[in-house]
Amino acid sequence: MERLNLRTGYDRLMPIAVIVILFAGLWPALEVLSERWLKFDESYSHGFMVLVVSLALTLHKWVRMKPRVGAYPFWLLPLSMASLVYLAGSILLIEAAQQLALLPLVLGSFLLIWGWEQTKPFFLPLGILAFTIPVWDYVSWPLQVITVSVNDFLLSFFNIEFYVEGVFVYFPGVGAFEIAHGCSGLRYLLVGLTLCTLYGELNYSRVRTRGALIAAGIFLALVANWIRVFVIIYIGYESNMTSSLINEHDFFGWWVFAGTLVPLFFLARWLEGIEAPLTTTGSFSEGGARKTTSLVPMAILVFGPLVLFSATALGLDARQHQGRLAHALPSLEPLLERDQWLPLFRSDLEGWAPVVRSPDAYRVDVYLERESATENDKLRLEVLSGLYIYGYQRPGGELVGYHNRLFDRALFMPVETFEVDAGDGASFRGMRLKLRQSGKELFVAYGYNVEGRWESDKLRAKLAQIPGIFNGRTDASLMAVGVSCEQCNGQAELEKLTPLIRKRAEYQLQGWIEKGS
User: Fold this and answer.
1) What is the rounded distance in angstroms from the CA atom of residue 257 to the CA atom of residue 229?
2) Where along the chain do its domains lie?
3) In this structure, is the dihedral angle defined by the CA atoms of residues 192, 195, 200 and 201, taken in order, positive or negative?
4) Best label site of 20, 38, 159, 265, fewest CB within 10 Å?
5) Rg of the Cα trace of the chain?
6) End-to-end distance of the chain based on CA atoms, in angstroms?
């Protein structure tokens, strides 16, 4: 009886101990993940709700099925591979690698103590958390392109003058719409996937039926976003960009998405009617559930690798934080000469400045050209120069991320884009912005310097991080220039100023990297 009670207690306590050890080792990545879940205007704001549902389903299965603890050495191999992926992401500062390894680490740990047959029922209750991990951001760009193509097709049926350039839809004389990250439909897609997967887990027994419901959910979620974007664009055009719907498009989008759930749940109910009754199994049998029966070897085999992984992960995170402190607060010099430019001691230009989160160093200056400092305000030429540096990219501190934006979309809207020659073969992206309230226009140019190479596109800047695996560099920076003037050619002024500012920025970047090396 005593041995039976010891085994029963071990069956209950060992999974909890595994979770505690994993939680400690994965805390740096989990902290970043929770920050994304708390951003309610992003695609992962359903994270905590899904976590509660996942925990409830997992706990329910654990209590009902009573899996027996053992040690299954075969699963050390996939668990070790997931650990290596996570640790490689920590060393190379690739947040996506860490996030991709989270669920395999959890499932691999359960496979190590429960084996395949006992862990299999927990795959879906835990697997729905995959829809809350920010690696789905890489799907956003194709979804944006598809949304642009669909709206290009729909607008062609109306007598509207427009043209499409990249993810921008321009209406000459009216304004422009950007099909940005938030307009890709990713948030509706993830919520739809979560709902359909949960419904299938609770009500269906056939994989084919679950797949049909998930496919329908994906299609209807994308359709909801296409309808939302089209209606906003069309009403914006008809109202000359004055409709309140333009600023309240998030609420409108959820109403459209709720409308598409009606046919989805009718379909789900119909599929449930043609399904075989869902059967449930009881607890696992005593025989064959335990591969290793001796408690001490079992504990060493299970806890040894997990403790080693957690200690290594925490050690790497501590080293990264020390490196961040060593690189903090370098001195940066102004990017324009003061003999020609008068500093205005402001940090924005007509309310505009790039939105950059947690850079290791930055310098933002606003200048007035001395020759234009006359009583006539229409002749004033004001310039903003900004340099934002990440000494190393890490979770929560990446140059290209959803939290970093060139401008605040609540204050400005894009009118057109163009290329700016930054000198020495470098090309920057230029943009004409319009203040929503006053209609005043600004001209801005920006470029990304990733490990010594200039890029003007977010995707190319992201891919430029790959050589850092081999050359040991992890730095990334944003350089931005803004011009405000009423009686001048803003684009021409950018063409004149950007090469000069870029050279001074490069000089400071090189000095900053040498100091930190």
Assistant:
1) 12
2) 2-132+294-322, 138-273, 332-516
3) positive
4) 159
5) 27
6) 64
- Tokens for 414, please give them: 């894009």
Place of tokens 């190590």: 112
Are residues 359 and 388 in contact, defined by beta-carbon separation less than 8 angstroms?
yes
Cα 502 to the center of its chain, rounded Å: 28
Which residues 6+ apart lie within 8 Å of 444 measured at CB? 352, 406, 407, 430, 431, 433, 480, 481, 482, 483, 494
In angstroms, the Cα distances linking 357 to 334, 388, 389, 402, 446 are: 21, 9, 11, 10, 17
How many other C-beta atoms lie within 10 A of the C-beta of residue 391? 23
Both tokens assigned to 86:
């996570």
Average pLDDT per 10 consecutive residues for the chain, totaling 517 residues: 55 88 89 85 88 94 89 89 87 77 93 91 94 87 89 89 80 78 87 93 88 95 94 88 74 89 92 71 52 62 76 68 47 82 89 88 90 73 92 71 79 87 91 86 93 83 68 80 89 93 88 64
AA letter at 282: G
What gap in Å lies between CA 61 and CA 492, rounded to an integer?
66
Q: What's the pTM value of the predicted model, to 2 decimals? A: 0.74
* 93 in Cβ contact with 137 (< 8 Å): no
